[in-house]
Design a protein that fits this description.
- The chain has 647 residues and is α/β, with parallel strands linked by helices.
- The protein folds into 4 domains: 43 residues, no CATH class; 175 residues, no CATH class; 239 residues, 3-Layer(aba) Sandwich (Rossmann fold), CATH 3.40.50.300; 92 residues, Helicase, Ruva Protein, domain 3.
- It has 23 helices and 18 strands.
- An 11-stranded mixed sheet has the order 9-8-18-17-16-10-15-14-11-13-12, sandwiched between helices.
- Helix 9 packs across helix 22, helix 17 packs parallel to helix 19 and helix 22 runs antiparallel to helix 23.
- The longest helix is centred in the N-terminal third of the chain and has 24 residues.
- It is elongated.
- 38% of the residues are buried.
- The structure holds adenosine-5'-diphosphate and magnesium ion.
- Magnesium ion binds next to helix 9.
Length: 647
């Protein structure tokens, strides 16, 4: 009976060259000669069963391109060519098919010094060839320059010990029940790798060595090796989870690498630590398109998720009309009011003073409203306002005693009255400041904007499954303030009734983030949203500003799901700077950067915690009609639908 030795012989170490493998059929019988003196003892020893006897196959046929092991056909393939450009987990594409494949990797660190001198020689040769071309007036060969750049990059990395080199053997063992199935499986695997521009090879007359290389013996008898640097090696690691696919999740799009659906539920705590989403791309990348499609799917597929949108350009109106949502047009003449003095519900942990905390919130809001563009209120102005807000609450009968919090709060009108009184009667220093603040506030309480958003007690309520606040009708310098005010009102109502799941979409969120208080407020929402069943969808095209901003980068880090769409803008220099920032913030590989630089609208990279998916956002005709932003596109789609009877 043929026996296999599964344990590694003690004399062999990774430093020495592996010993010549013995043929599998060469029977490794127990060494009976050492202890057995008589023929009978020897025969008795042969009669004992060892573990190896039990494990070993009863038959093995070695053919030139496969083995037949106990009736099972098996073939070892080697990876002859690695794909030229790879993204992390690329081998997943092959493994995700759940074919009968075992993957075997032999990784051996190489000493940097030896590699460095070989690289130096290569670099000289390439440099020499390029110089020769230049001096003889021949055109520059791009292949040579790219190779030289890569080699120089490697040498730099090696010298700084940022990268190491590895010798890597990669083998795939296929299993099938018949020869025909084995050939078919081979074709399939070769095809999957060819799709990634890699190539496999069937080692002829070396199947036995290949089989050994796939045994858990840590011995590479086949020795088809590749020299790889750390970065490339890490992309081969096959256990990076690929597309998150949560049964019953919402369709996000298609994973372009493995052509599978990406389904995810942002509120599934087993997968997503929080439901916050960050969407970063320059204008036209497909941010709003994706968000509208996602919102529609949440409304249709779930019955416990509400969507609230702060819409700067009234782009969500079509969605609102199609889904029977509530569109609140916020403008000087509109009847919708939000009173910033509304008190939030008491803190769940019962910490802090509700009134004092909220006064800080109102102060932050008024800072955005009353300060000169790009500036903040002075310390003196903040002190006067702080006092005035407290007095306004007192005038309305609201104190720190929670029993008084049910009384109707003051309004902007109350604050105006307090400031006016201060301007008339206050101390010399305070009087001038109060007068100046009162004058600026008067525009919103008795001036042209008096009837609008701040004109009285709150009358907007999130009682519809989709509520869109359209702020386009407000003067441009009030957009940031309006976003802040609306987000504050939504946050209060969410905390008051945390029984539902909600997505709060802030499109063009940089407008809010550029003010210190607005940024702080958004950051606190991102941190606390999860406890109240809220997910903030943070959308921005000002990626550079957001990522360079301290609060912006905290927000980017604290959203569990990030969608990066096409990352190329108008000017080359700006694009490169932004791309570098994005690459650093999200740890993108060179290939991922290249992919994002050239992506079409609706194509990008979805990062969900540890997952990385090359996403294509797909939409049905009905969804496209709602999600297309350009009026011309929407008209064309509507016309096509009426001709064809709808989609
Ligand atoms: N997933 C997609 N499929 C098809 N077209 C898309 C997709 N995403 C974006 N587009 C096209 O790009 C245009 C701009 O998209 P939009 O979402 O408004 O960009 P952004 O909000 O990033 O500025 C859309 O009107 C549409 O024509
Ligand atoms: Mg947009």
């Amino acid at each position: 009976m043929p026996l296999l030795r599964l344990e590694r012989p003690p004399e062999w170490s990774t430093d020495a060259a592996p010993p010549e493998p013995s043929a599998l059929l060469a029977v490794k019988k127990p060494d009976v000669t050492r202890h057995a003196d008589t023929a009978d003892e020897r025969l008795a020893a042969f009669g004992l069963r060892s573990l190896a006897d039990l494990l070993a196959p009863s038959s093995l046929v070695i053919a030139d391109d496969h083995l037949l092991l106990d009736g099972e056909y098996t073939r070892v393939l080697t990876l002859a060519d690695l794909p030229p450009v790879v993204a992390a987990g690329w081998l997943n594409g092959v493994l995700a098919e759940h074919l009968a494949i075992d993957l075997s990797m032999h990784i051996r660190p190489l000493e940097g010094g030896a590699a460095a001198s070989a690289l130096k020689l290569k670099s000289w040769r390439l440099g020499g060839a390029l110089n020769d071309d230049a001096s003889n007036g021949r055109p520059i060969d791009n292949h040579l320059t790219t190779a030289l750049e890569q080699i120089e990059g490697l040498r730099r990395g090696l010298a700084r010990r940022e990268i190491a080199l590895f010798s890597v053997g990669l083998y795939l063992r296929l299993r099938a029940s018949s020869r025909a199935n084995l050939d078919e499986l081979t074709q399939q695997v070769a095809g999957l790798l060819a799709a990634q521009a890699g190539a496999v090879l069937v080692p002829r007359l070396q199947q036995e060595q290949g089989f050994r290389a796939c045994l858990p013996e840590a011995r590479d008898a086949l020795q088809v090796l590749h020299t790889l640097d750390t970065g490339t090696l890490s992309t081969i690691y096959p256990f990076v989870p690929s597309a998150p696919r949560i049964p019953g999740g919402i369709l996000f799009g298609i994973d372009e690498q493995i052509h599978d659906l990406v389904e995810l539920d942002l509120f599934d705590h087993r997968v997503c630590q929080n439901a916050n989403v960050g969407i970063f791309a320059p204008s036209g990348g497909g941010k709003t398109f994706f968000t509208k499609v996602l919102a529609r799917r949440y409304l249709l597929m779930t019955d416990n998720t509400d969507i609230i949108v702060i819409d700067r350009k009234h782009e969500y109106r079509a969605l609102c009309e199609a889904m029977g949502g509530q569109f609140l047009r916020i403008a000087a003449s509109s009847p919708h009011r939000i009173n910033p003095f509304d008190l939030p519900p008491p803190d769940q942990r019962g910490e802090g003073s509700v009134l004092l905390d909220h006064i800080q919130q109102v102060l932050g809001l008024l800072d955005v409203l009353l300060a000169e563009p790009g500036q903040r209120l002075s310390l003196g102005e903040r002190a006067v306002l702080d006092r005035a807000i407290k007095e306004a609450y007192q005038a309305a009968g609201v104190t720190e005693d929670p029993a008084t919090h049910a009384t109707p709060p003051p309004t902007m009108g109350t604050l105006q009255a307090v400031l006016d009184a201060e301007a008339d009667l206050g101390s010399d220093v305070g009087r001038a400041t109060a007068a100046s603040l009162a004058e600026r506030l008067a525009v919103f309480t008795s001036g042209s904007l008096a009837g609008g958003l701040l004109g009285g007690h709150t009358n907007v309520c999130l009682d519809s499954r989709l509520v869109v606040f359209g702020i386009e009708g407000l003067p441009e310098d009030l957009w940031s303030f309006a976003m802040y005010l609306i987000a504050g009102c939504v946050w209060q109502q969410v905390r008051q009734w945390p029984d539902r799941q909600r997505l709060l979409v802030v499109d063009e969120a940089w407008l809010l983030l550029q003010h210190r208080d607005g940024g702080r407020f958004l950051e606190s929402i991102v941190r606390l949203a999860r406890s109240y069943g809220l997910g903030l969808v943070f959308i921005t095209q000002d990626i550079k500003n957001v990522l360079q901003d301290a609060r912006g980068s905290v927000i980017a880090e604290n959203v569990f799901t990030t969608l990066l769409l096409r990352q190329s803008g108008k000017s080359q220099q700006q694009t490169t700077q932004t791309q570098q920032l994005v690459a650093e913030q999200f740890g993108l590989s060179a290939e991922e950067q290249r992919m994002l630089g050239a992506a079409q609208p609706g194509h990008g990279l979805l990062l969900v915690g540890p997952w990385r998916v090359q996403l294509h956002v797909i939409a049905s005709k009905a969804e496209e009609r709602i999600a297309m932003t350009a009026p011309r596109e929407r008209q064309a789609l509507a016309a096509a639908a009426s001709r064809g009877g709808g989609a």
